[in-house]
Amino acid sequence: MPEQLAENSDPSTLHHAVACPFCGLLCDDLVVAETRGALSVTDNGCAKARIAYARPVVAASPLVNGKPASLDDALNAAARQLKRSRQPLFGGFGTDIDGARAALALAERCGAIVDHLHGRALAHNVRVLQTRGLATTTLAEVRNRADLVVLVGADINDDFHEFARRCLRPSSALAEERLATRRVFHLGPAREAPRQPGVDAESIACSREEVLDLVNALRALRLQRQPRLRGKRLQAVSNLAGAIAASEYAVFVWTPGQLGEDGDLVIGAVCDLIADINRSKRAAGLALGGNDGGQSAIATAAWLTGYPLQLSYAGRTLEYDPLRYDTARLLAAGAVDSLLWVSTFNPHPAPVTDLPQTVIGMPTAQASSMRGVYLPAGTPGLDHRGQLIRTDGVVALPLPQLRDVALPSAAFLLHEIAKRMG
Amino acid sequence: MAGRSITELRGGRVYDPAHGIDGVVQSIYLCDGQVVGAPSDPSDIKVSHDLSGCIVMAGGIDIHTHIGGGKVNLARMMLPEDHRQDLVARGRHPRMGSGHAAPSTLTVGYRYAEMGYTACFEPAMLAANARQAHLEMGDTPIVDKGAYVLLGNDDLMLRMLAGKEPGVKVRDYIAWTLRAAQAMAIKVVNPGGINAFKFNQRKLDLDEQNAYYGITPRQVLLALADGIRELGLPHPLHIHGCNLGVPGNLDTTLATIAALDGLPAHLTHVQFHSYGTEGDRKFSSGAAAVAEAVNRSPNISMDVGQILFGQTVTESGDSMRQYAGSAFGSPKKSVLMDIECDAGCGVVPFKYKDKNFVNALQWAIGLELFLLVSDPWRLFLTTDHPNGAPFTTYPHLIRLLMDRSFRNDMLKTINPDAAAASTLASIEREYTLYEIAIMTRAGPARSLGLGNLGHLGVGARGDVAVYVDHPDRERMFTTPRFVFKAGEMIVRDGRVIASPTGATHVMRVDYDTSIERTLDAYFERYMTVSRRNLAVADGEIDGDGRGSLIAHGARRSS
Ligand code: SF4
Ligand SMILES: [Zn+2]
Q1: For B277-293, what is each residue's pLDDT tens digit?
Q2: What architecture (CATH level 2) is domain B6-58+451-496?
Q3: Which positions in chain B touch A274 (Cβ < 8 Å)?
Q4: Which domain holds residue A193?
């Protein structure tokens, strides 16, 4: 049978050096096989990536108030919704740089407020940047130059999983001697210490709430002040303080998304410690975050407006206010009257609200029951090309198109809505 | 033949130094985006602008302005207080935005155009950050752009030099880097010093060894300058030397010029590298000595990096010196970054105060340099935006150069000890419009090998700035009557009326592609991206009709 033959003659294509968009690390060493639109990671990449690439493509139709509609009708409905809205909120913002550009252009046009799904976590880091500044480093510096890495309340077992293999314990480094003697510490709940084989982190177990105390104690020890710790814990922290004193290049890693409400305090304390060390030796920080295009969103907003998120186009001039323009607070206060939600990397549902919505991205269970418009969109790096900025804020990577499933990009849909705004 | 559609710019006073035209009243004709000759059939002239009483120059070209890339964007994010005082209201420009020291990309493009500038070159792109730099430049409207990519602090270059790799290997690496980063030229910042700072060295003199690689700044400079000459790049090595901002660095600068020994080089923001140690405060002007050395070295070009008083932000790849400077920052916050075994950066907000002795003398040193360097073809007008001052101060700077009495009035307002320590009051030179046109148009275009930019001859791009002649040159240069970009009127009476997308200029030279296999292995073994993904593809710049690329070639085939 000819069909059988066709199937036997291997129809799959292998893509090499694929950059993964599923967390802020953007590992670019994945090998991905494509077979009639189905993707599977065949080399490198973490479990999270393997699951995300393997998600089946759902043939989704645009919906208007839960009913299938043509793309044109759905786009018109989305534009009408925005035109009627006196104060739209653009949330989610899970898209690539082109998507961010298109979203910001549309937001300017309709006077929207803009926030990102991980807006609060991103704002922790930005706040520290704006108040005291930061000394930071990037992935290749960690890989090659660090002789000490301290994970400060950072759990890299799920997100950022490959940080272990690619940076903490790589197979080679420019400064081989530093790699050979590199020590890795973990501060935080013992169950969150890195479990990747070969990492061998020295764990200083404490609750999430205690991380700040431990960082302050480290600093006190450096400044030869009495730390507010005793017993075993003091011993453990003193041991780390000794390791810091002996190090030539210490890197402190934090994950803003895991730090909770006072994340900026922890980051600020770590930055104070880094500043102390830099007076005589070298140290630097590294934030692991920026998932769902978060790093790209704040960077693109910053270059197009001067401000990172969260910001508002509602007035005569731009307004930047991370507290005031926070999605959850705006919705709770009834300060907005429509929501445009973009989530193209993961099926993050829009927050529950009665407001009219336009949702762009992956189909979610919610889409079929909501009031408003659903527009299916492709995932950058799988369904269409794109670009994203890595968590260190330096390296931007190209994302390939791996298959052709005729899903438009969020950027395309946003441009089309803008055209229909009249 | 169908009638052509020619725009006539009639009867303005034209300054076109590339053709030796010094204030001649003549008409300029634009057609299909270019300057064309006078039409034989007058009916081809579809639009005519009467420019009597106007000054006509090619569009301005800024050879050194930090407009795109990671550290610029960090400065933006870091300084909401900077933007809040200079917000661009809806309707003022085609898109909203903000200034002032770290403006949004949109605002940068519009404001440059509003001053009559039509091309800007970002001098400090990192290969590791090239994609983002191009994304930002891609969102900078109207102006053409291009960037210089940094080499000389990357571990790879230092390893190559330490391993005594042959010059041809270094040249292939330079050429590959230009291509991968889509760059126009090569810059070195604190040669080897940024790398040394990662190994905790806090200073690195011209002949001091990097503690890890054993390589000196002199070796780095010579390897790069020589490689660039061999490759035939029009713009020579763009050098931000050792010891930026350090009192006494005038000796380093003189030693650097001597070390180059005739090799072509461009010394950037020389004001920050012309300090002596005389006087009670151990800080003095080295401008005369540096200017003298530049005057007698035809291989050297320079830009000044003039400081002007007020709040700004300093952004530099020189993490070593920026760290040292962070103690003097205002407001007190700074960013320091070690970057990707490639480079580094430091961002420090700074307020230059006219009553502060050091700042006031820096101001005077910059002006002394401008006035003591004799050849405007080798001297370009910059404030090293935003390091010395935001680019929007250019009209003021031009007035300082063109108007001695204004300059002397300003001199009387600065810190009196600094004024007394400077020779500025005794310098009589006043720049002419012709010299300004050289420094801001013809000179940068020639240095960068831009071909059809920076002049108004037949075949030139129709980038034209028209100013109303006014004795107050600051006023005149602030608000052009018209600006044309590729023949289209984009500014009228100092306001943007159209916002086309400028091109991205890149330099392309051939290289032996076997270097890519060496690089593949290096990236695989040590880096966190693959060589292939590091490289910025043409389509990322000119795809989807977003932008366009103009590729330039070597001066001669090698
Ligand atoms: S660690 Fe992050 S970027 Fe790397 S493969 Fe896993 S999800 Fe993708
Ligand atoms: Zn500069």
Answers
A1: 999 999 999 999 999 99
A2: Roll (2.30)
A3: none
A4: 122-287
